[in-house]
Design a protein that fits this description.
The complex is a heterodimer of chains A (172) and B (146).
Chain A lengths: L1 H22 L18 E3 L7 E3 L8 E6 L5 H12 L4 E7 L3 H11 L5 E5 L3 H5 L7 E5 L5 E6 L4 H15 L2
Parallel strand pairs in A: 3-4, 4-5
Antiparallel strand pairs in A: 1-2, 3-6, 6-7
Chain B lengths: L1 H11 L3 H20 L16 H15 L4 H12 L14 H30 L4 H15 L1
Helix pairs in contact in B: 2-3
The chains are: A alpha/beta (172), B mainly alpha (146).
């Protein structure tokens, strides 16, 4: 009798473990940067090589830091949402592994939701931020601390539940 | 940068020691790449992956070697940005204890169960017969000889 129950328990445990393992998305890796200040980096701005984009300036208000590229087709999926969000949130871009011409052209065709974009031609900034899949979106609080990272296209649901919820919670 | 100066020294004082130093650095570079995972393809190390990210990370590893960082420092540098997942071999920690110890625990458990079963089988085979069993055996043998 005990042996029967033991077998059932072992089987149930196995099913639970496999269910957990199979329903996890292995391409989503949690970032060790969450809870830390955004890494300090300086880069040229996409708009002009003479101007600089300084990550330490990203403070004073909640902001989104979005990693994008003109070659990134998934970026188009979230673009409409970003355009909408840009009217209520400070939105900054990191143009990842791109060319200036193509990136600027992309913004002209689809619209520019960013206050400014850093031009990360060789992916150096991407490494500082632990970027491994474009697009990625970081939520920064007014102290410049990374509070959340979204990998893949941002959607309304993730915006409401992960981003807006954190901003509301953090507001005094 | 340092690498460039090292090479110019080599050219100045052309000697075999310079080559040896460079070979050691190259070997460190190759060994490190096998310790680090490409996060795009996930089941490939940086040494094996063709992904663009892997190329960027290889360049970063080379830069850090040139800056004089130790292997541990380079691994910590990338771990701080990408997390434990960048390590091709998961670190030994309490979080990963089940991962490392699991196979050995299972092996010990199976060995124990197997041993117990074998011993039990032995005990049954070598045990003496009860009176009832002896009688039954005698009956069977008698019937067989008729």
């Amino acid at each position: 009798m005990i042996r029967g129950w033991l077998a059932v328990a072992v089987f149930a445990g196995l099913v639970a473990m496999l269910a957990f393992g199979l329903t996890r998305d292995p391409s989503r890796v949690s970032s060790p940067l969450i809870g830390l200040p955004v890494p300090a980096f300086q880069a040229e701005r996409l708009a002009s090589a003479d101007e600089h984009f300084d990550s330490t300036a990203l403070r004073g208000e909640w902001s989104l830091l979005n990693v994008w590229a003109s070659w990134c087709t998934t970026c188009l999926e979230e673009h409409e949402l970003l355009m909408r969000l840009s009217q209520q949130l400070a939105l900054y871009g990191i143009n990842h592994r791109d060319t200036r011409d193509e990136a600027r052209n992309w913004l002209q065709v689809y619209g520019n939701p960013y206050r400014a974009s850093a031009f990360d031609e060789h992916g150096e900034v991407g490494i500082e931020l632990g970027v491994y899949k474009v697009p990625e979106t970081f939520l920064l609080d007014p102290d410049g601390v990374i509070r959340y990272k979204h990998v893949g296209a941002l959607d309304e649901e993730a915006y409401q539940e992960q981003i807006l919820a954190r901003i509301r919670e953090g507001r005094p | 940068m340092k690498r460039a100066t090292a090479w110019s020294f080599c050219l100045l004082f052309a000697g075999s020691t310079c080559l040896a130093v460079d070979e050691a650095a190259d070997e460190r570079y190759r060994n490190l790449l096998y310790e680090l995972r490409c996060l795009v393809c996930q089941n490939q190390s940086l040494a094996d992956s063709d992904a663009e990210l892997a190329g960027d990370l290889r360049r970063r590893v080379q830069d850090l070697i040139d800056q004089g960082m130790s292997d541990e420092e380079i691994i910590a540098h990338l771990q701080a940005r990408y997390g434990d997942f960048i390590l091709y071999r998961p670190p030994l920690a309490w979080r990963t204890a089940a991962l490392w110890a699991g196979p050995f625990v299972l092996l010990a458990l199976t060995a124990w169960l197997l041993l117990r079963r074998i011993r039990r089988g032995h005990a049954r085979a070598s045990g003496s017969l009860s009176d009832v069993e002896r009688k039954r055996l005698k009956d069977v043998l008698k019937r067989g000889s008729d």
